[in-house]
Amino acid sequence: MENNTPTPTSTFNGSTLQLIGWRLLGFLLSIVTLGIGAPWAHCMIYRWEISHSSVDGQRLAFDGKGHQLLGKYLLWGLLTVITLG
To answer: pTM score, two decimals?
Structure first.
């Protein structure tokens, strides 16, 4: 039985040096802000990675915000304390 479904193709046009730079910047942001800036750093890095990716010729988009992720971190921390407490 033949499968005539086309396989999606994905491409990434960022360089390794750029990725290292963005991750270093995110690490420094997290260190300088004592971890409070970690959600913004994660979003910044993922935004860069996603903006350099495409599937079937269509660019991907990342619309997450650091403050949204910070809210999730706080919720997860609270639930962890309640669960382990």
So the answer is: 0.79
Placement of tokens 């479904």 in the chain: 5
For residue 1, how many other CB atoms are within 10 A of its CB? 2
> For residues 29 and 41, is the Cβ–Cβ distance under 8 A?
yes
Separation CA 59–CA 44 (nearest Å): 17
CB 14 within 8 A of CB 52: yes
Lowest mean pLDDT among 4-13, 26-35, 74-83: 4-13
Non-local (6+) Cβ contacts of 57 within 8 A are none
User: Which residues is 59 bridged to in the sheet?
Assistant: 54
Residues 16-38 have pLDDT tens digits of 999 999 999 999 999 999 999 99
Cα distance between residue 61 and residue 55, in whole Å: 11
